[in-house]
Design brief:
41% of the residues lie in helices and 16% in strands. The protein is α/β, with parallel strands linked by helices and 415 residues long.
């Protein structure tokens, strides 16, 4: 069964204006499946096929000539040099179309999982010729087969969407956290241990081994578990290094690998040329909560919900859902999503910036009476407009806490 993705609209619109689209993201997020379903006229080839890979490496012109266009090339990171020949073909086609007064059309769709290498090579070689788009695992709205849109913290916008939202209590949220959003696992529900162990083994073998010495893969697996136990926390390089037995420089390098391969993402602290007391370190979050829970050793959602890590996992779920909704709408999170924490331990979980206005957001498991406005007031130092804030929890509707903050149900993210 194919589940339609919210990103499809962005891809179809992008295909009208670009000769090439580069899709990147973590393994098992459905990149090639989505590409093959929405670009049905494209031939498909993967560099997992050793014959195709060797031909592309040794004779890229013959490889491209033998397949023609439009063409989907999967696992592009295995032969990044092919982009040089793709560039030449795109430029020649544009020149020919200009002479004949024809419109340029989509020629190539490239997909791959080693984000850093793909983005760097595509940005350098195919600059101005390819759109570069990140693909995440399933969002809650995609699982519910709802159309969805980018998360917008505006109260009036949220109220207008209330009729479409599906209520989730905290037990249902933690069931979702345990499942995660990898399409194959969510749809087919194979054995949990088998699926995630196979996923990690493939990830280490095919992605991580490209960046570090193969003799250190066991250390990297242990490193992944340590990072999983610290999801939704500001990164502490020395503490992580001590737990794994590596130096802080290696920690920074290995974190960059996790980010580059789409396993985690960073949330940066908000700054505006002042706030000298703000902690400058980013917070790290796992993109897929199912993988994070497995790495932490959790096997039951009820036990996780009752544990001391329940708040961190609930926050990870909420933030990852917001990030997915933004990415699925073609938005970059580094332009609008931040957090605040200073050395006095005053903090705001999320700050959404829109039209030079700050939207403060707190993420809380369960429903209680919060003094959210108390923590939100710390943002007044920025001398910017502060909109009505949100407390995202397991409430059943959007309703006011006080004049400065509203409850927002977790199930409304991405509608």
């Amino acid at each position: 069964m194919y589940y339609h993705r919210q990103l499809e609209k962005v891809l179809l619109e992008t295909a009208k204006n670009f000769s090439c689209i580069t899709l990147y993201g973590a393994r098992q997020t459905g990149k090639s499946t989505m590409a093959r379903n929405i670009f049905k006229d494209c031939e498909y080839v993967t560099f997992d096929d050793s014959r195709e890979r060797e031909l592309a490496l040794n004779n890229p012109e013959l490889f491209l000539e033998s397949h023609g266009v439009p063409l989907i090339i999967d696992e592009i990171q295995k032969v990044p040099s092919i982009m040089e020949s793709i560039k030449i073909r795109i430029d020649n086609a544009k020149l020919e179309n200009t002479k004949n007064n024809k419109r340029n059309s989509l020629m190539y769709v490239l997909t791959g999982s080693y984000t850093l290498e793909i983005r760097e090579k595509a940005s350098e070689t195919l600059a101005g010729r390819t759109a570069i788009i990140e693909v995440s695992s399933f969002s809650w709205c995609e699982k519910q087969k709802k159309e969805g849109s980018a998360f917008d913290p505006d109260i009036d916008v949220l109220k207008s969407k209330q009729s479409d939202f599906v209520y989730m209590n905290r037990y249902e949220v933690f069931d979702e956290i345990m499942l995660g959003g990898m399409p194959e696992y969510w749809i087919s529900r194979p054995g949990r241990e088998t699926f995630f162990e196979s996923y990690i083994a493939t990830y280490l073998e095919k992605d991580v081994s490209r960046a570090i010495n193969i003799s250190r893969l066991d250390d990297f697996r242990r490193f992944m578990k340590v990072i999983a136990l610290r999801t939704a926390q500001p990164v502490n390089y020395e503490e992580i290094g001590s737990a794994v037995g590596i130096d802080s420089r290696t920690v920074k390098n290995w974190i960059s690998i996790l980010i580059a391969t789409g396993i985690i993402f960073e949330l940066q602290p908000y700054e505006k040329n002042l706030a000298k007391r703000i902690i400058k370190t980013p917070k790290l979050y796992f993109v897929d909560t199912g993988l994070c829970a497995y790495l932490c050793g959790w096997s039951d959602s009820k036990i996780l919900e009752a544990s001391q890590m329940n708040g961190a996992f609930f926050e990870t779920y909420v933030v990852s859902e917001i990030v997915k909704s933004l990415r699925n709408s073609g938005k970059r999170i580094e332009y609008c999503l931040y957090y605040y924490r200073d050395r006095d331990q005053k903090e705001v979980d999320l700050i959404y910036v829109k039209n030079q206005t700050l939207y403060p957001i707190e993420v809380k498991k369960g429903i209680k009476k919060y003094r959210a406005d108390k923590s939100f007031r710390i943002l007044e130092q920025y001398k910017m407009p502060i909109a009505t804030g949100l407390v995202i929890d397991t409430s059943d509707k959007v309703f006011p806490i006080n004049k400065d903050a509203y409850y927002c149900p977790v199930g409304m993210i991405g509608l």
